[in-house]
Amino acid sequence: MQKLISFETFLAGLQEYGTDFDSHFALQSKLLGLERMDYDRLFRLETLSHEFPPALLNRGLPDDMTERLGTLPQKNATNYTGNQDRLMTEVNRRTISHIYAKDFDLLDYPR
User: Fold this and answer.
1) pTM here?
2) Spatial contact of 69 and 53, defined as CB atoms under 8 Å apart
3) What number of other Cβ atoms are within 10 A of residue 53's Cβ?
4) Cα 62 from chain centroid?
5) What are the distances in angstroms from CA 12 to CA 88, 90, 92, 109, 111?
6) Core vs surface per residue 80-105: b (16+ CB within 10 A) or e
7) Contact at 8 Å (CB) between 20 and 104?
8) How far apart are CA 25 and CA 19, in angstroms?
9) Closest to 25 (Cα-Cα) out of 39, 34, 33, 15
C-alpha cells in the first residue's frame, strides 16, 4: 500500500471512511467483543514473548514445557523499509489516537 498512497493519505481515509472495511484496520476492541465479553487475560503482541511463558506457568504448565517456547518469532514482519519515526509525526499520532480512541481506552494503551 505504501507504494500507492502516503501514510497521511491512508490515515485520512481511515478517519473519513472508518476502519471496518478490512479486519486488519478494524478496532481490536470490536473484534474482541470487549463490550460484550470478559477475558481472564489479554496479551499484547509487543510484549507476548515475556508475558506468555509466565502466564502458562501460572496455569500449571511445567517449566520444561515453557522453556521450549524460547523467543516467539515474528511471522509477519512489515515490508516497510523507510524510517518509521518519520511517519509518526505529531499530527499522525493525533489522527491515530482519534481513529483508535476506543481501542486506546478499552485496551489501556497510553495516548
Assistant:
1) 0.75
2) yes
3) 19
4) 29
5) 14, 14, 9, 22, 19
6) eeeeeeebeeeeeeebbeebbeebbe
7) no
8) 5
9) 15
63 vs 49: CA distance, rounded Å: 15
Which ranges of the chain would DSSP assign to H, the alpha helix?
Answer: 7-17, 28-32, 48-58, 63-67, 84-87, 90-99, 101-106
Tens-binned pLDDT, residue by residue, of the chain (111 aa): 778 999 999 999 999 999 999 999 999 999 999 989 999 889 988 888 888 888 999 989 888 887 777 666 666 666 666 677 788 999 999 999 999 999 999 998 988
Which residue type is seen at 14?
L
Whose cell is 497521511? That residue is 8
Q: Between 7-17 and 90-99, two packed helices, what is the crossing angle to 10 degrees?
A: 30
